[in-house]
Amino acid sequence: MNIDYKLLMDNAKDASQNSYSPFSRFAVGAAVLASSGKIYKGCNVENSSFGMTICAERCAIFKAVSEGEREILAVAIYSPNSDSCYPCGACRQVMFEFQKDDEEVVVITENLGSLEVKPLSYFLPCGFRI
User: Fold this and answer.
1) What's the farthest any 2 CA atoms get from each other in the chain?
2) Is the pTM of this model over 0.90?
3) What is the DSSP letter of 83?
4) Residue 74 Rama label (left phi>0; alpha psi -120 to 50; beta)
5) What is the tally of structural domains in the chain?
6) Has 104 been annotated as catalytic?
7) What is the pLDDT of residues 48-94, one digit of tens each?
8) CA-CA to 123 of 20 to 30 Å: which in 63, 75, 87, 109?
C-alpha cells in the first residue's frame, strides 16, 4: 500500500485540536492507518488522576481495534507545542502489538516543518511479544 504521509499528518494535526490537556498543556494528535486503508484519529486525554491519562497514539489505535482493525501500517503524531513529537514507551509497545506480521510500522512526525518517517524498530528495537 502506498502511504500518503502528508494526508496522515494532516489528520493528526486535526486530531490535536480535540486534545484535553488542562494539566500539561501539551496537546497531541495522532492518526493511524490500518491495513484496510481506513484512517483513525485520536488525541491525548488527561485526567487529574494522571495514571488514567491516555496518549493520542493509543487513543487512535484503540479506536481502530474497537472497529475491528487488527493491523496497523503507519502512525502520524503531531503536537502544536513541539517541533517534534515522538511516542512514549507504552505507545511504542501498543504499536508493536498491532504491526502486521512483524513488518515495520511507520512512525511519522513533523520536525521543524518537514516530515520524518522512521520504522517502529527505530523507536522500539526489541518489542515484547508472547
Assistant:
1) 41
2) yes
3) S
4) beta
5) 1
6) no
7) 998 999 999 999 999 999 999 999 999 999 999 998 899 999 999 99
8) 63
Place of cell 496518549: 55
Name residues whose C-beta falls within 8 Å of residue 111's C-beta, 6 or more positions apart in sequence: 83, 84
Tell me the CA distances in angstroms from 110 to 12, 53, 68, 97, one per residue in order: 10, 23, 29, 24
pLDDT of residue 58: 98
Residue 35 has pLDDT above 90, yes or no: yes
Cell of 94: 501498543
User: Is the residue at 129 inside a domain?
Assistant: no
Specify if 45 maps to a domain.
Answer: yes
Closest CA to 56 of 67, 41, 66, 70: 41
C-alpha cell at 13: 494535526
The domain that contains 51 carries what CATH number?
3.40.140.10
Cell readout for 28 is: 497531541
Looking at 46, 57, 69, 110, which residue is catalytic?
A: 57
Domain that holds residue 47: 5-123
Q: Is the separation of the CB atoms in 91 and 120 below 8 Å?
A: no
